[in-house]
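Worked example
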Amino acid sequence: MLTEREEAYRVLLLWQKDGSFIKESGLSPFAMELALGVCRRHLYLEYFVKSLTKKLPSLEARVILEMGLFQMFFMDVPDYAAINDSVELAKSANLGESTARFVNAVLRTARRQGEPALPPQRVRRVSVENSVPEWLVRRWFDVYGGDRAEALAKATLERPTEWIRVNLQKTNAPVLAEKIGITGASILYDRFIEIPRDVGVKLLLALPEFVKGEFSFQNPSAFEVVKLLDLKPGLKVWDACAAPGGKTALMAEMDSSLEILASDSSASRLEKMQDLMNRLGLTNIKTEVIDLAPASAESRLSSEAKFDRILLDVPCSNMGVIARRPESVYRMTPESINEVAELQFKILENASAALAPGGRLVYATCSPDPTETTRVIARFVKAHPEFVKVGEPVLPGLKDSRLDGFFAQALEYKK
């Protein structure tokens, strides 16, 4: 087990130093659970360490202590094993005997004293208890009120529900569920199967049904977004921020007569999309590198063929999927949210130039924050009165906690 702890330590240290994504590290299941758990509860664990030490130790020692505390208080690991392996980890990381003794003493004190008292002030308490930066908790208090803000903060600690999307061109949900041994699981929209907690994603990736393109991994919130497009046979559709390609593939699976252009600013991400399309056997998708951020994009796109539907799943803060991407909460700042909102508006303006009269554009983000959602839409509609909102925005995570916190709004071009 020391090897797995060494893996988690290495990845957590890289994350702390340069913000590397933990989920992209290829860790074993135990190491991944440990690394993501420490990341998800980092602020609380840091607070815990501060309560046990006179001054913060080195980053390396801090990571080991946070790992030890997480195993002791949040995992099904015996205290003695968590303490002993943390001491051995300090030694194998070449931190010296004094650091190993320090780790041993701090963790034994934690076992004896238990968890520290939380701060009395509510915003600070919610921040520490749920490892959400205090400025963001205060923002949620201002936008949503205290009770919902606290619920949002608690939700960031939940292990997200995993789903597979059935490729209905090749099979159906009940048949696939029986073939892969997860019968009795919840099925949504006839094509999404909830993965039970005891079924590992890595095991599913190795199944022949996955290799043959009978299913992919996707949260059902994507279907709620795509439904807003009101797709009809034979339409020309542009998925303008397509990579990694989940929603593109969903649309192609829903109707093979759609003529879909999938674009992204990254050529390497589009190459990975090609692998996805090949595995799923989708032939009605073309890909193209298009960067919608530059000011010149609008004029270039406006002269090209128009699209009946445009899906615009813009880059965002990831505020609605913190539980799935716990690193994101530590990258956000008020300034970064304002900056990404400007980028979102620019992309929306540029992409909208390619919509045919009478066509529909769906603007989507995996953030519910008003700065990235309703305010971007309001600003755009004010600047472009030929576009009108269609219905109310969709927020799938509000009606079902198993769904990601997306926001989506449909717009129609009435010129």
Observations:
- The CA atoms of residues 158 and 284 lie 37 Å apart.
- The chain is about 50% helix and 15% strand.
- The longest helix spans residues 334-352.
- The longest strand covers residues 355-365.
